[in-house]
Amino acid sequence: MDATIGIIGGSGLYSLIDNADDVAVETKYGKPSDVISIGTLAGVKVAFLPRHAKKHTIPPHKVPYRANIAALSQLGVNRIIATNAVGSLKPEYKPGFLALFDQFVNATSGRNDTFFDEDIAVHVSSADPYCPQLRNIASVAARKAGIPIHETGTVVVINGPRFSSKAESRTFAAQGHHMINMSQYPEIMLAREKQMCYLGVALITDYDAGLEGRLDIKPVTNDEVVRIFGENVDKAKRIITEVIKNTPQERTCSCSKSLEGALMTKK
């Protein structure tokens, strides 16, 4: 039986699934970040992929995003639950909180961000890229568990691996974005091109380069990110487990129809 739910995450989530078998997958876009572990969580068969490899050796600007999504698709995955460490751009998005992405802004460059780049023109809508069905299930799960969470939020995605300058952080905040991250794009849109549902769970670890006018909030450091991320992992595990428990087999969202009307090339 195929695993229809895929989990993309990092450190602290490797022990999430039971009775896991590792599977090496080849795709036309090369190898994914690492082997994919297939096992069970809450009695459901799932596939787990470490975005940055198990030893965290792949920086965000070198993640093989196309191979990762293609590999999960080849295994039968049609829903993805992904976790990301993010910096906050707003005072109310506090370190230690979780958030559910509902919008993104792409500020990366040079990344292979589509499967449709060979003799075909396909224009996929990204107006509402994140799955509303999964986001609603996650919101309910967080409220029941008493986990502090923002049910929506816009993430701006930068190349990395460096953190933002104060001027960049100030600009992103002024533009109205809530969080900043290095790996949400193009992962989200590649999943959409495969007509997958995608839930993005943000683990807020820091206040980016500080906040305008707040001298008490210091710029982000890697040590601080690692510390807060570790404290947030258990919250993310609880939400992921509840989402998988409460996700019905039927997809009632429009994610499975994201390619309808997108093809421009005449055959």
The CATH superfamily title: Nucleoside phosphorylase domain
Q: In what range is the share of β-strand residues?
A: 15-25%
Global morphology: globular
Order of helices and strands: EEEEHEEEHEEHEHEH
Query: Termini distance?
Result: 35 Å
- Number of β-strand runs: 11
Q: How many DSSP H or I helices?
A: 5
CATH overall fold name: Rossmann fold
Average of per-residue pLDDT values: 91
Catalogue the unreliable spans.
Answer: none
Helical residue percent band: 10-25%
CATH architecture: 3-Layer(aba) Sandwich
Structural class by helix and strand composition: alpha/beta
Radius of gyration, taken over Cα atoms and rounded to an integer in Å = 18 Å
Oligomer state of the chains in this structure: single chain
Major sheet characteristics:
11 strands, mixed
Give the number of domains. 1
For the record, the CATH class is Alpha Beta
Task: Draw up the topology in text.
Elements lengths: L4 E5 L8 E6 L12 E6 L2 E7 L14 H10 L4 E10 L9 E3 L2 E5 L24 H14 L3 E2 L3 E5 L7 H9 L4 E3 L5 H7 L3 E10 L15 H25 L21
Parallel strand pairs: 1-4, 1-5, 5-11, 6-8, 7-9, 9-10
Antiparallel strand pairs: 2-3, 3-4, 5-10, 6-11
Description:
The chain is of the alpha/beta class and 267 residues long. It has one domain (5-257): Rossmann fold. 24% of the residues lie in helices and 23% in strands. It has five helices and eleven strands. Strands 1, 2, 3, 4, 5, 6, 7, 8, 9, 10 and 11 form an eleven-stranded mixed sheet that branches. α3 links the parallel β9 and β10 (179-181). The protein is globular, with a radius of gyration of 18 Å. The model has no long low-confidence stretch (mean pLDDT 91).
